[in-house]
Write a structure and sequence with these properties.
144 residues; mainly beta; 4-stranded antiparallel sheet; 2 helices
Length: 144
């Protein structure tokens, strides 16, 4: 798997997909507040005992019912829509990634899973794809 830098990802996103991450926005629901500036959340300094996973879904003009539910180690991470990305820090070691379309109306967080092994202080990029019939896949993002 190729390891990209944060600046390479920013360039790829700007040129290849339309992701509305360039402007920061603060959101709040009850007492919970978060910043939607995804670019600011990407870490150039991953802690010694952690790895960073970044999931990218290129713009595909599919309906929102094709959002890809992503889980790590049987824990829900995000429902990734077209033209968006998400990142998470995980402990280094073995992990189970899985994805399933929200159209399936299932909570099977191990569906379509694959095992990965992460190394300390590394960032790994994954491309998430969806189809109109509800199939989803997740694969390492390659520069070629």
């Amino acid at each position: 798997m190729n390891i990209f830098t944060k600046s390479m990802l920013t360039t790829m996103l700007a040129l290849s997909i339309s992701i509305p991450y360039a402007t920061a926005e603060t959101r709040q629901v009850g007492p919970v507040v978060w910043n939607t500036d995804t670019a600011a959340q990407l870490s150039d300094n991953v802690p010694n005992n952690k790895s960073q996973l970044i999931f990218v879904r290129f713009a595909d003009n599919l309906p929102t019912s094709t959002s890809a539910n992503i889980s790590i180690d049987d824990d829900y991470q995000i429902s990734l829509q077209s033209g968006h990305l998400s990142n998470v820090l995980v402990c280094t070691g073995e992990h189970k990634l899985s994805t399933q379309s929200t159209a399936h109306k299932s909570n099977d967080l191990l569906f379509n899973g694959q095992t990965i092994i992460t190394l300390p202080k590394q960032t790994y990029y994954y491309r998430v794809q969806a189809t109109a019939n509800g199939d989803t896949s997740i694969m390492p993002l390659d520069a070629s």
